[in-house]
Write a structure and sequence with these properties.
Distance between the termini: 11 Å
Shape: globular
Order of helices and strands: HEHEEEHHHHHEHHH
Number of domains: 1
Number of strands: 5
Largest sheet: 3 strands, mixed
Length: about 220
């Protein structure tokens, strides 16, 4: 029933977004935090394979903040759901992603997946930064300066616009929808392929989904 509901919902969304044989890129935002088990599960098992498959059709924004909050506008640091190490991890990722603005989404998600799997940034370890070929000295300078604070304040602002009740929160388009959120957590590729039914990367995935419904 859950999948049927989201298929109907996303189909309606698709009618509003895809008006020609050439699909428009869809904006996707992921709100997450560096030590959240659910964020790790989504990014490694859902987001990364989906981005590898559909990156040509998406515009991705990654917001590493979650249920954190700034103290005295960030000048007294931040308070995070999973403690100070999570704040450190969020900050490292904000700085690294800022330096990766010219890179593609596959590279960005590969970097974030590394951080989520190893939690390197939460320990001040630059292993994932180095793997992503991001200048370590510039990340360290960002983390210890006002630049890092401003990046996390920006992520806080973006997160507060949504006021997520659950982390990670995934928004397809511009407006949060609970059914889309639930379906994205369960099958992110399938959710997007319900929109991009006419593109080659989705055809096999979409057809296999349709066959399962026929067999039910």
């Amino acid at each position: 029933m859950l999948r049927l509901n989201y298929l109907v919902l996303v189909f309606v969304f698709a009618l509003n977004q895809v008006c020609s044989d050439v699909p428009q890129k869809i904006f996707v935002t992921v709100y997450y935090e560096s030590q959240c088990p659910d964020s790790k599960e989504f990014i490694t098992n859902q987001l990364q394979p989906t981005i590898n498959l559909l990156h040509k059709y998406l515009m991705l924004r990654l917001v590493p903040f979650g249920k954190a909050r700034s103290i005295n506008k960030g000048y007294n640091g931040f308070e995070c759901q999973h403690g100070p190490t999570e704040c450190a991890g969020n900050l490292v990722q904000s700085c690294a992603l800022d330096l990766m603005q010219g890179r593609n989404d596959v590279e960005k998600v590969s970097y974030v997946a590394c951080e989520m799997q190893t939690e390197a940034g939460t320990r001040g370890d630059m292993e994932c930064v180095m793997r992503a070929s991001v200048p370590v000295d510039q990340v360290k300078a960002c983390v210890t300066s006002e630049k890092g604070i401003m990046l996390q304040l920006e992520d806080e602002y973006l997160t507060n616009l949504v006021k997520p009740k659950f982390i990670p929160t995934i928004i397809i388009g511009e407006v949060f929808n609970q059914q889309v959120q639930d379906s994205a957590l369960e099958d992110f590729t399938g959710t997007l392929c319900s929109i991009f039914t006419n593109i080659p990367p989705c055809q096999e995935h979409y057809n296999s989904m349709a066959m399962r419904y026929v067999l039910l």
